[in-house]
Amino acid sequence: MHNRTSQQGVAMPKQENNLPPLYVDLDGTLIKSDLLLESFLELIKHNLLFIFLVPFWLLSGKAHLKQEIAKRVELRADLLPYNVELLAYLKEQKKLQRKIVLISASNQRLVDAVATHCACFDAAIGSDSTSNCSGARKLARIQQDDAQFVYAGDNQVDLAVWAQAQAAIAVNLSPSLRSKLSKLCPLEAEFNYSSGSFRSYIRTLRLHQWLKNILVFLPLALAHQLDNPALIVNAMIAFLCFGLCASSVYILNDLLDLASDRQHRSKFRRPFAAGDIPLISGLFLSPILLVSAFSLATTLPRTFIVILAFYYLCTGLYSFVLKRIMLVDVILLAALYTLRIISGAAAVSVIPSFWLLAFSMFLFFSLAVVKRYTELDYLHNAGIEQSEGRGYYAQDLNMMAMFGCASAFLSVMVFALYINNEETQNQYLTPELLWLICPLLLYTVTRIWLLAARGKIEEDPIVFALKDRVSQMVTLACGLLLWLANFPWRQIILS
To answer: Domains in the chain, start-ordered, CATH in brackets?
Structure first.
């Protein structure tokens, strides 16, 4: 909410005429983001090789860098996270015939796009190829047109402008910066929005997704080594490494998918897409998490480190390229789940079963297809032809269902073959109990697909299964049967 108070805390009289011109900053003020970073991320998303040109562009100055990036990207002004309360205030002032100018250090092309979209500005001023419109340069540009003005800003660099302003509009100022501003000019209005909260940072790590990494414990459990403390510690370290690595990838993926997330029915709430966290924080946080993951991985066998590196490489390729290729994306997702099992085996120095890996690929391919199916179902119901940033069309809905169901049933068949395998028969004391898992698996995968067809699954099916009470009970029942199969029930009954 905004406060229309003067420096002394006395309400300023409302003026209908002769209002001083209002100059409005863009980055961090009108929008909860930074257009330079937004355009940079959009640039490397479409061609990663541009990242090698950025240092050379920067040698010619920051303004030149902005110009080179801006002319290579198409930024959707309508999708930006606007400060809605400030924008509403500006439209109120426009009704009073007040002159309102958008002025920013962002490139002129991008500033024009925002001004056109907002439709409340009389003019738009931005940086060109030679001049960066910030600080003293911004002040000089304002004074070319108006000696008396009010300025809306959010940053330390704006103090130079506020020092010559008739009044200020403050946006999300820190207590120290607000104190400095109070010594320079009175406040016309103040706007604050939540930004950079601890909860937002926790959300962007997607800690609930770490539950997928429980798969690293599976080889240890199937090898009947859960009573080995040293191996349990190794598996826990592997779990943590994959969690940190995955969070690093999630942040990178969120940074690259800003536009598509903002158009999604639920992903628009993600912290970076909504402007709840500064983009620069993500650019620092992602590599920090990655370095932490690999530093921790040095305590495990080298094979695990290689697998973790391969996992990160695959997820990186997925974020930049492969997720936009039809079917390749879901196959890779299934492979990444299987890779968790392989890494868990490497962490505890056991050889994973061929049957386990085959079962994993078919099962997780089916679940990955469920995720795409739910997205296509939403598009179909909304009358949208093509998925944003994906290689799928709404008309693919039925085919995806066929692929997913077939793969689900194949996973159950592979598990049945695993039970009938001679090695499995010798590994368990009562392997007959394992057959009870088959109907449970059939029930689970069939139920998930039925719920997806009914529109009851609106998120990642893995996350859904982890939260779903029925799925939890089935998982516990399967685990219990695996444990009971290791008891000599046959000998007990026959004796």
So the answer is: 22-191 (3.40.50.1000), 198-494 (1.10.600)
